[in-house]
Amino acid sequence: MSQGQQHRPQQGDQLEPIKYGDVFNVSGELASKPIAPRDAATMQAAENLVLGETQRGGPAAVMQSAATYNERAGLVDHRDATDATSEEGVTVSESINLDGNKVITERVAGQVVGQYVEPPPGASPAAVVLEHDAITIGEALEATALSAGDKPVDQSDATAIQAAEMRATGSSEISPGGLAAIAQYAVSANTREAEKTKLADVLEDATQKMGCDKPVTREDAKAIIGAEIRNNPNMSTTPGGIAESMAAAARLNQNIY
Predict the structure, then answer these.
(1) Burial of 209 (0-12, 13-18, 19+ CB in 10 A)
(2) Is 66 helix (H, G, I), strand (E, B) or coil?
């Protein structure tokens, strides 16, 4: 780390920082580096400079969520930066592919952490897809475990998880012992017990718990967003929650939001 200090959790030695390899398809030394607050700030600045704004659900947002977790857990300092960004840097670049689409590529230490495309003016955005593996429903749920993992599970979460599982599996029934059943049980338990079950407890390894998975589409995101909003007393989505993760995944997958 740039400050030359070791940061350890105060209770126990089980906590591990979220590393680049945990959230991005990177390799080598970068994969083992913890994501630090100044790393996220650097990527955010790069996105703002090149794209005019921070991309919702993009690499900067993912890095910010991971860095916030690491800092709150006492694993990094607010001023920390890894040598991946302080020495090797981050880049956000634009290019045009053979189809005339604008390709935006984001890199940390030379390795791609995000790549998506924008259609040319007048093109049908539904025809534009990512040039890397699409984000699945399970992966979007697992991302929520990072971005909103400390939130106690309530009925809006459970209903959104149920909708997500049904979209992923193609089934209209709740599978006993499946992700939706676990979430609904958590809601019931949270009304009775002082120690609340949180989203991270339910959504960790969501893909494995569901058994089936599929890339997030616009239709999937709409169904899941609707389920969350209808069961929220404020008729709104949770910041960084399931609905927002699905919307971000659908936008990255098809660039239609």
Answers:
(1) buried
(2) helix
